[in-house]
Structure formats: C-alpha cells, structure tokens
C-alpha cells in the first residue's frame, strides 16, 4: 500500500515507466517527461538535497510557476522526510519573510532570476537562509552570492551520489508513513500574519482519492497546471491527484500563453476559480461585439435557447424534440466552435472553487455543454468537502458531502466539518488551532450556510460578513455582500466589486471596471480615454455600470431573503484593486475590511449623500517603487425595486 507521494511515484514508474507523467512547453514545443524520467529526476534531486544538508522534518521553500523540476523538488524533499512549503511566485519579498522565519527555512529552490532577487532581499531580513537554488539560469551568469547555485548543479551532484549509493533513495522513501507531514501551505493572512496549515501524506492522499473516485478519474486525463502551486486548489489537482490517479499534468510556457496552451492541450479535467471563467466570458463578449451582425444575431438567438434548455440537457432532463433539434443545430454553429475556442472541446469535468460563482456565469458554461460544477473546501480541509454529482449541478449549492465527510450546522449558522482531510494543525500556533478544531474533531469553517432538502450544501457568505440592514425601509433585512458582489461580477464590464451595508440603512458598492471590456466598448462608440482612471470616470461608463447595478437590483427584488440587499449607491474606483497594494489576497479575494479603512473617505461619501469625492491613493509598482493615483470620483444613485412579494 502506497502511503506517501514518493511511494506513489515509484509505483507509477514501475508499472508504466514510459507513460507520460508531465509535459512542459518550452520554446513553443511540448516536451514529454515519462514516469521513469520523473522518478530518476526525483532520485537525483533528493540525493542532491541530502548532500546540501536537508534533514528529515526540516522545512524547505519552493517558489515558482508550475515546472516539472519544481514538482520534482517537492517530491524529493518529501522522499527525505523534509517538508516543502510552496509560496506564491507573485508575492513581494516582504511577504515571504514571515513564512521563512516562522518555518526556520535554511534552503529554498526557486524558478528564475526574479525569485532569486526576491530571496536575496529576504535574506537581508532573515540571515538564516543559507542556500538558494534556481531552475532557470537566464540572467544569473554574473551573480556571485554565497549559497547561490543552480538546480543543474544539484542534480549533477545527486546523480553522482546515487551512483555511489544505489539503494539510498529507495531506503529513504520506504521510511515514510502516511502520518508524516507532507507539506505546509500558508493562508493569505487577511487579518494578520499568515498561518502555516500542516497536512500529512494521509490527509492529502485521502482527499485526492475521494475526489478521483467521485468523478471517476483515470490515468487518461489531461490537466493544465497554470494557477499558483502555493494555492492548495492547484496543488491538489496537479500534484496530489496527479500522483493518485496517474494522469498527465501539462505546464504552460508562461502566463501569457495559457489560453493558447489550453486550446492545444484540450484538457479533460479542468479547474479554475470564478475569476478565470469570468475572464473567458468577458473575452467572448468582446469578440461578439466585434463580429458581423449576422454572427451576433446567430449568437444571440442560440445562446437564448441554450440558457433556456442547456442546463436541463446537461442534467439529463428531457427538453423535447424541437428543442433537441435546435440545440443540435446550435451546437454545430455556435456551442461547439465556442467550446473549441475556449479550449473546452475535450473537457469531461470542470470545477470552480475558491469563492462563490455568479449563478448566471455558472449557467452560461453548462448551457453550452461544459460540465462545470462547484466544489466546496479550503486549505484546512485539503479541498474536498462537498462535490456536485454530474446530474445535480446547481448554481446555488456546492454539492453533497463526499466520502468520509460529515457536516453539521451550528446555532449561528456556521458550517462545521468532520473529515479525514482535516489539517494536523497550524504550525507553531496552538491557539489558532484550538479556535478551529474542536476536541471531538469538528472543524469550524467560518462559512454560513445550510443543507437543503436534497442534502446539498448552500453557502450564504462568511459568518462574520453576513449582516443586517439597520434602519430605513429594509430594517432587519439580511445582507450578504459576497452574493451581491458575485451577481454584479457576472457582467463582462465589471471586474471587481466591494459591497457594504451591514448595520447601515442601505447597500453601497465600489466597482472596478474590466479595462479590456469597457475599453473595447468605448472604442466602438468613438469615446476617447487616456487610461484606466480617465475611462472609469466617463459619464457614459457610469450609465453602463448603472444599467448593470439596476438589473441586479431587479433580480434581488425577486428574492424574498435578500431583497433588502439591493444597491442604492455606487462609485467606480479610480484604480484596479491589487494584491500588491494589500487590497486583494494572493488568491484575488477582496479584503473588504482593509479596503473600507483605506478608502474611508469614499465610504463616507457614499453614505453621506455626496455626488463627488476626491481621493489620492499610494500604489506599488512591480519593481517595488511607489507612486500615487488621484481623481475626483463621481457617486451615482441606482434605482431600487419593491420586493416582488410585497408588491403582490
């Protein structure tokens, strides 16, 4: 029985040595790495790390994009009983200091010059970082820093050691057990320092197996690994499940080529947070605006049909002979070419997670024949808690508990979970561990929700974020900011939203426009603009966004539970919310509390009845420099609607 990831690797290498394990696109050409190649690489890497002084139980940092040699590094560390910690490759050096200090890291392996520079900067604040190894040598020829070396050197030294000690690697792997710590993932740290979530081989493998069993995954799947490996979602799909199911993981050449690579690979198993699906739909909307009138009309007609009958068809329900024939014609003319253009022509199972997806966005993909489903989980649960069965995918639920999971709802509406995939604990933080893990094994998710009559879990929002309107005609009405934000983000012209309303008499929102989508819209109307800030404040853009807000209000008026969450006032921000400016987490979730403090004058203006407000904001550039952006922002009122029930 294989109980660790290195043991799973050796099993694949023994049973099907020449089968492809990974592909990497380099200089426009896909290079294939077999399971035997991967096992050899991991063996040499482990021996090299052993010679570099990596000890059992020691932490080691890995920073970079999805690259076969970085995956091999994590496997090599685990083979020696060490604990890899993947960090976000776009994190600033200052954000890396705490994780390295907290985990007492001496050694790291990074992707390229950018990450080397970052670690050298980290070393100024954390001198215990002794060794830095890089995978890509470009730009590093003249670097002369103590402890700096290449992965090539590490592999060469490891190969020589393995030749002299042929049994060393397998002996090390055999020592490992399912209860050994396999990895540590740091949370985004929205309310303070990030917490290190400790997972064993047993927790990660069990959840990977549960997910694979649920969706009948086989070694024939193709996966595109393009999201940060530091995010446990990507790590489960392209690392844990890769080693459990034995499918092929494909690594794109760069972030700029992901969409091209997606079309070339045509994955069968696909995973993305809602923002990626939102971006794809935005690109489709932009292209349709530029299409001929015949194509626009065809698209409009067949998409209307698809939204009406497509989801029912995906769920195996009868849609009638006429609709079946028309859908088949639509598939030939619109849906099939659209799936192919998005890279979804071979997708058998697609998942979205990380945050709630807008119901209209969810329905769009299912209507064109993409088996998009939702799952529910977190870093602390090793992702898989609830999954949607193929014929029961609904926009307003996150599925049913998967194998081994128990769910109960606390008196305050919080979801509690018991699962074989729960974290071992937060590293060096017993107080935080005790806050989320009860003595009898229940994990506090901090999410508010309930199980419906069909046994599906519905998530409303974070417990701390679900609030009440106070005062006015909606006094006492429930306010769920994430629900409002997601409904607005369905529109291709809106990229990000931050909603406020708890303990206030009305709901107000701050909006980021999608610069590409609105820019295209403006150009088609001969509307000149000098950049994001200028475009965002155009009166025509405000009218465009106002239409979106009022359409959402009309939808909310039909929901008796959330009718009080209609948006009364809004503004369009002068800059895009950015993780480097602290406004988003590294997984692109809005930090609502931080934003409220940072933009306090704007919040006050929204609720104070003002029509304009000047704001100046400090921004951080990619090279570390800072600057400022200022503008006088317009504030607009939006029409609200009488709740349908009250009107009746």
What is the strand and helix layout of this fold?
Elements: H1 5-15, E1 20-26, E2 29-34, H2 35-51, E3 59-63, H3 68-79, E4 83-87, H4 93-103, E5 107-110, H5 113-125, E6 131-134, E7 148-150, H6 151-164, H7 168-175, E8 181-186, E9 196-200, H8 201-214, E10 222-224, H9 232-245, E11 248-251, H10 258-265, E12 269-272, H11 274-290, H12 293-314, H13 321-342, E13 349-352, H14 359-367, E14 372-376, E15 386-387, E16 400-401, E17 406-409, E18 414-418, E19 425-426, H15 430-436, E20 443-451, E21 457-462, E22 467-468, E23 478-479, H16 481-489, E24 494-500, E25 507-513, H17 515-524, H18 532-536, H19 539-557, E26 567-572, H20 592-598, H21 600-607, E27 612-620, E28 626-637, H22 644-647
Parallel strand pairs: 1-11, 3-4, 3-5, 5-6, 6-7, 10-11, 12-13, 13-14, 25-26
Antiparallel strand pairs: 1-2, 8-9, 9-19, 14-15, 15-16, 17-18, 18-20, 20-21, 22-23, 24-25, 26-28, 27-28
Question: How does this structure look, described?
Answer:
With 648 residues, this protein is of the alpha/beta class. Among the domains are: 5-200 and 230-243, 3-Layer(aba) Sandwich (Rossmann fold), CATH 3.40.50; 467-647, GMP Synthetase, Chain A, domain 3, CATH 3.30.300.30. The chain has 22 helices and 28 strands. Strands 4-3-5-6-7 form a five-stranded parallel beta sheet, sandwiched between helices. A five-stranded mixed beta sheet has the order 12-13-14-15-16, with helices on both faces. Strand 3 (59-63), helix 3 and strand 4 (83-87) form a beta-alpha-beta unit. The protein starts with a helix and ends with a helix. The model has no long low-confidence stretch (mean pLDDT 92).
């Amino acid at each position: 029985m294989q109980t660790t990831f290195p043991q799973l690797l050796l099993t694949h290498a023994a049973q099907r040595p020449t089968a492809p394990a990974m592909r990497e696109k380099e200089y426009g050409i896909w290079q294939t790495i077999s399971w035997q190649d991967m096992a050899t690489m991991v063996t040499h890497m482990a021996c090299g790390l052993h010679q570099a002084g990596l000890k059992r139980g020691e932490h080691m940092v890995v920073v970079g994009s999805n690259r076969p040699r970085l995956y091999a590094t994590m496997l090599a560390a685990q083979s020696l009983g060490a604990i890899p910690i993947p960090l976000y490759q776009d994190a600033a050096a200052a954000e890396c200091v705490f994780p390295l200090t907290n985990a007492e890291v001496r050694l790291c392996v990074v992707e390229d010059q950018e990450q080397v520079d970052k670690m050298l900067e980290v070393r100024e604040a954390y001198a215990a970082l002794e060794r830095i190894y890089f995978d890509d040598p470009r730009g590093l020829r003249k670097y002369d820093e103590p402890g700096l070396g290449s992965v090539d050197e590490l592999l060469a030294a490891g190969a020589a050691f393995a030749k002299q000690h042929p049994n060393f690697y397998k002996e090390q792997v055999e020592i490992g057990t399912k209860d050994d710590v396999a990895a540590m993932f740091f949370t985004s740290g929205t309310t303070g320092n990030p917490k290190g979530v400790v997972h064993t081989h047993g927790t990660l493998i069990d959840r990977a197996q549960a997910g694979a069993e649920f969706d009948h995954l086989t070694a024939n799947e193709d996966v595109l690994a393009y999201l940060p490996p530091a995010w446990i979602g990507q790590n489960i799909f392209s690392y844990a499940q890769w080693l459990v199911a034995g499918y092929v993981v494909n690594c794109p050449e760069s972030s700029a080529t992901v969409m091209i690579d997606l079309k070339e690979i045509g994955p069968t198993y696909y995973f993305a947070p809602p923002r990626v699906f939102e971006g794809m739909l935005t690109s489709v909307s932009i292209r349709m605006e530029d299409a001929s009138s015949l194509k626009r009309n065809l698209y409009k007609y067949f998409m209307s049909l698809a939204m009406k009958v497509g989801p029912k068809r995906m769920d195996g329900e009868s849609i009638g002979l006429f609709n079946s024939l028309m859908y088949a014609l639509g598939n030939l003319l619109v849906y099939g070419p659209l799936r192919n253009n998005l890279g979804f022509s071979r997708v058998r199972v697609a998942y979205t997670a990380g945050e709630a997806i807008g119901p209209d966005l969810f329905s769009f993909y299912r209507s064109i024949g993409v088996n998009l489903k939702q799952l529910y989980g977190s870093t602390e649960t090793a992702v898989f808690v609830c999954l949607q069965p193929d014929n029961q995918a609904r926009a307003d639920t996150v599925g049913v508990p998967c194998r081994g999971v128990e769910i109960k709802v606390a008196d305050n509406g919080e979801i509690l979970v018991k699962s074989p995939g729960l974290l071992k604990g937060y590293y060096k933080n017993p107080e935080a561990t005790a806050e989320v893990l009860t003595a009898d094994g229940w994990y506090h998710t901090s999410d508010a929700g309930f199980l419906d009559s069909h046994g599906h879990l519905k998530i409303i929002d974070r417990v701390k974020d679900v609030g009440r309107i106070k005062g006015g005609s909606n006094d006492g009405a429930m306010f769920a900011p994430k629900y409002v934000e997601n409904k607005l983000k369905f529109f291709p012209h809106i990229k990000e939203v931050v909603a406020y309303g708890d303990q206030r008499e009305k709901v107000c929102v701050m909006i980021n426009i999608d610069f590409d989508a609105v820019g295209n819209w403006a150009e088609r109307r001969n509307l000149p603009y000098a950049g994001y800030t200028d475009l965002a404040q155009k009166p025509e853009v405000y009218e465009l966004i106002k239409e979106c807000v009022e359409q959402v209000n009309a939808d909310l008026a039909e929901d008796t539970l959330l009718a009080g969450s209609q948006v009364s006032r809004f503004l369009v921000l002068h800059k895009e919310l950015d993780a480097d400016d602290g406004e988003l987490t590294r997984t692109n979730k809005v930090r609502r509390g931080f934003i409220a403090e940072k933009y306090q004058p704007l919040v006050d203006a929204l609720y104070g009845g003002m029509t304009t407000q000047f704001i100046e904001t400090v921004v951080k550039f990619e090279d570390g420099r800072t600057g400022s952006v200022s503008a006088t922002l317009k504030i607009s009122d939006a029409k609200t609607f009488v709740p349908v029930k009250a009107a009746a």
